[in-house]
């Protein structure tokens, strides 16, 4: 009996000792994965395996640390080629945010949420489609669609693939613009329609914080009409130019929008001279008067107006180019190609002065079109926001034009014809 009790005691002691030793070993031994997180070669290897070769080479120069959890919105190599002047290490910092944001977390954020990036004072804007179905709901980062969500997620690093155009973030990207006052009509939530709604909201938000608040209001006023488009190209004036003499822009806002065409900088400058661009204003077209040859001494002009800033803003459905003055309406007398003599009206540049660019026609009886600012209902710069929106919304017909009787003319030394 004593012998059996002694044997049982020995076995119990051995079992307890083994359990304690195993537990101590388990709690003190580091796991291989933890060491791997802090390895300098870990993130480049992940990027390379996922097909992001450009980001893989830029990782070591971006000073990104994996010591804390991060989420990376990775542009494809093709997307990075659209911004050849961009610094890849800086772009990587600007597309990396501290913390873990899987797709379901991004979709739950409020529209227009700002997330601070690893780049100082730079923020990404998160938007999403308005549909309630997660199966078709999409998220966007600064207007670029998250096309490949949760490509990599090991609980410490999340990588999303984004498809679209990328550029460096603005110093104003962290400014919070409140959108609570905006009210948008509810429409059927088909995927294409929902995307256009999101892209319009994104464009309005970014325009308002970039010095184009009047154009943002104009987009809001024409929202019901524009949301039905598949895409659009907008030519915009900033607030300073608007109030410094561009008063004819608002009444002619629809004349500055090319519907269902996403004309990025490369597409626009490739258009040859005399290309006709339709506008939202029915029966009113824009004309490429100087093609984009790349010569700085002969910049691209549409309706004789220089395109001041290409690719001012863009997302998957909308691109905005900057102008310094509104487009004038061109009068095209009948000819074989529809563009014989081109008559240019500059309602902002001078009082009742119109120019015809050489070659000048033979002078006989002539007429000219001028835009009556009072008939147009030109919006003065001191209107309130609601009055401005009402003014834009009321422009449903073509601007009223006056036809003047025959008038005298003379030719100056520069071979231009001036009417008085």
TrEMBL record:
Domain FAS1: 71-169, 233-330
Annotated spans, Disordered: 331-362
Keywords: Signal
Domain of life: Eukaryota
A Pfam family the protein falls into: Fasciclin
PANTHER family recorded: EXPRESSED PROTEIN, OS02G0491300 PROTEIN-RELATED
InterPro entries given in the database record: FAS1_dom_sf, FAS1_domain, Fasciclin-like_AGP
Name of the protein this chain belongs to: FAS1 domain-containing protein
Signal sequence interval, chain numbering: 1-23
Zinc is among the record's keywords: no
Record has Signal as a keyword: yes
Organism: Ilex paraguariensis
Family to which the UniProt record says this protein belongs: Belongs to the fasciclin-like AGP family.
SUPFAM superfamilies from the UniProt entry: FAS1 domain
């Amino acid at each position: 009996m004593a012998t059996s009790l002694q044997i049982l005691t020995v076995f119990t002691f051995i079992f307890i000792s083994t359990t304690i030793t195993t537990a101590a070993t388990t709690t003190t031994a580091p796991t291989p994965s933890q060491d791997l997180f802090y390895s300098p070669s870990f993130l480049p290897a992940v990027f390379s395996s996922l097909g992001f070769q450009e980001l893989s080479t830029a990782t070591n120069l971006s000073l990104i640390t994996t010591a804390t959890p991060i989420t990376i919105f990775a542009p494809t190599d093709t997307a990075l080629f659209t911004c050849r002047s961009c610094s890849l290490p800086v772009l990587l910092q600007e597309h990396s945010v501290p913390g873990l944001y899987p797709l379901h977390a991004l979709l739950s954020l409020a529209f227009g949420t700002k997330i601070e990036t690893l780049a100082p004072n730079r923020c990404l804007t998160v938007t999403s489609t308005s549909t309630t179905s997660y199966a078709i709901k999409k998220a966007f980062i600064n207007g670029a669609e998250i096309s490949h969500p949760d490509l990599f997620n090991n609980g410490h690093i999340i990588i999303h693939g984004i498809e679209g155009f990328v550029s460096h973030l603005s110093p104003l990207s962290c400014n919070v613009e409140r959108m609570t006052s905006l009210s948008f009509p509810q429409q059927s939530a088909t995927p294409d329609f929902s995307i256009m709604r999101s892209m319009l909201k994104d464009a309005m938000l970014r325009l308002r914080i970039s010095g184009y608040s009047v154009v943002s209001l104009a987009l809001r006023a024409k929202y019901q009409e524009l949301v039905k488009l598949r895409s659009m190209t907008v030519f915009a004036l900033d607030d300073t130019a608007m109030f410094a003499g561009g008063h004819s822009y608002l009444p002619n806002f629809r004349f500055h929008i090319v519907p269902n065409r996403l004309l990025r900088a490369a597409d626009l400058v490739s258009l040859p001279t005399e290309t006709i661009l339709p506008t939202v204003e029915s029966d009113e077209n824009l004309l490429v008067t100087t093609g984009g040859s790349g010569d700085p001494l002969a910049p691209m002009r549409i309706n004789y107006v220089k395109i001041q800033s290409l690719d001012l803003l863009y997302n998957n459905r909308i691109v905005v180019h900057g102008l310094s003055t509104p487009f004038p309406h061109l009068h095209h007398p009948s000819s074989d190609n529809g563009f014989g003599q081109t008559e240019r009206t500059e309602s902002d540049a001078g009082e009742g002065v119109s120019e015809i660019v050489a070659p000048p026609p033979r002078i006989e009886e002539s007429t000219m079109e001028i835009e009556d600012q009072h008939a147009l209902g030109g919006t003065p710069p001191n209107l309130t926001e609601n009055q401005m929106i009402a003014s834009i919304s009321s422009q449903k017909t073509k601007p009223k034009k006056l036809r003047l009787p025959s008038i005298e003319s003379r030719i100056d030394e520069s071979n231009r014809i001036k009417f008085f």
